[in-house]
Amino acid sequence: MLLGTVLVLLLLGGGPASAHAALRSADPADGSVVKTAPDAITLTFTESVGLLDDSFRVFDPDNRRVDTGEAGHADGRADTARIKLPGKLGTGTFTVAWRVVSADSHPIAGAFTFSVGTPSATPPALPSTSVENPATGGLFNIGRYLAYLAAALLIGTAAFIAVCRPPDVRPLRRLLLAGWWALAGSTVFLLLLRAPYETGTGPVQALDPSGLTRTLGTRPGLALVARLVLLAAAAALLLWQRKALREGKPPSRAALLTGAALAVGLALTWAGAEHASAGIQVPAAMTSTVLHLLAMAVWLGGLAALLTLFYRASVPSRVVGRFSQLAGLSVTVLVVTGVYQSWRGLGSVSALTDTTYGRVLLAKLAAVTLLLLAGARSRRTVTSERTARNVTVEAAEVREARVPEPVGGRAEGAVDGLAGDRVDGTVDAPVSGPSLPEKPRPPAGTALTPAEDAQRRALRRSVLAEVVVSVVVLVFTTVLTGTLPGRAAAEAATAEQSAGLPVASVTNIPFTIGSGAPGVRGVSGKVQVTLDPGRVGDNGLQAVVYGPDGGFVSIPELRISFSLPDQDIGPLDAKVTDRGGYWAADTVNLPLSGTWEMKVTVRVSETDQVSESKPVEIVR
Question: Which CATH architecture has domain 505-618?
Answer without folding.
Answer: Sandwich (2.60)
